[in-house]
Protein: Isopentenyl-diphosphate delta-isomerase
Amino acid sequence: MRISRKMEHVHHALKLGQSGRQGLSDIKLVHNCLPEASTDTIALTTRIGDLTMSSPIFINAMTGGAEETETINRSLATVAREKKLAMAVGSQMSAIKNKEVVSSYQVVRQVNPNGIIIANLGSEALPDQAKRAVDMIEANALQIHLNVMQELIMPEGDRSFTGMLKRIETIVQQVSVPVIVKEVGFGIMRENARQLSEIGVHILDVGGTGGTNFAAIENARRQAPLDWLNDWGCTTSVALLEALSIYPRGSIIASGGITNALEAIKALTLGASGVGMAGAFLKVIQSEGIDALMGFIDELHEGLILIMTALGVRSVDQLWQRPVVISGETAAWCTTRGID
Ligand code: FNR
Structure:
């Protein structure tokens, strides 16, 4: 049998890896040699819109929709439960259209009955489908992903993108859980952030370049690759600053190429309230298994606590008060675009 598209995405994501050019090397934290802090007073809890999470780090949307992906989702959900991380599932449209694959998503709720689980659909979804996706996994929130460039490069992808904003607006009005609009790795810019804010979207996940690259993944699936599109989009650092020029603190998630505690802290210090990680978690769970991923998450949390202690902050929102120095391409971008 032909390998499913969902598994092709997993294989290509692992094979291509993450470039690490998410722009966070342009962000320098300002050292504090008199921090008045100790490791046992640091709280990692965070609030993003109406969601309260025990860690700013969460497992971002990846998979579901094919038999093999049920195993991956079961493993990720086990880690999410043990480490008390929120977790998003991959796009549920396949399960809306085909009941046979529903279990590959529902496994996440079965394994983790009390955790924060986030449903996921694309912007082609109708309000009724959004409600069904939320109900399917008793989700605490719903992600709507934006992935126009991925669809256009995907041989079998969508070619028409009209009415996206209107459909998202209706979904926001009709579903009973917070809606997070996210990019899959090309970034959300200020103009679009303003449009999304105006239709009542309270949480954005800026999903910039520098991590899993869906232009490269779809090109790897094409007979005639459009490799000249592999650098499309804006870095996570730029997307974060663009979105924060429209949205208040407490409403922005950083994702795209975040792989360690220092990168996560830089994103949080810039003003994010949460940090989504996908490719880095997929790599560990697929190559080394559940225990290794749990160890990696412990390392991430220990790293966050270490850096927060060094900076003299006790909570994520106190990180927002810390100064940062922005240089390189991120600074040049902000100057050109008039972003403070
Ligand atoms: C994804 N991502 C994703 N996002 C989404 O909203 N719906 C989806 O179905 C998927 N599917 C998916 C499959 C695989 C294998 C990967 C690795 C990723 C995108 C993901 O949530 C995230 O936005 C990007 O991967 C960028 O973050 P990282 O991977 O650089 O941390």
In short: DSSP finds 15 helices and twelve strands in the chain. Residues 9-10, 13, 18, 60-63, 90-91, 120, 143, 145, 182, 184-185, 207, 211-212, 255-258, 277-280, 282 surround FNR (CB under 6 Å).
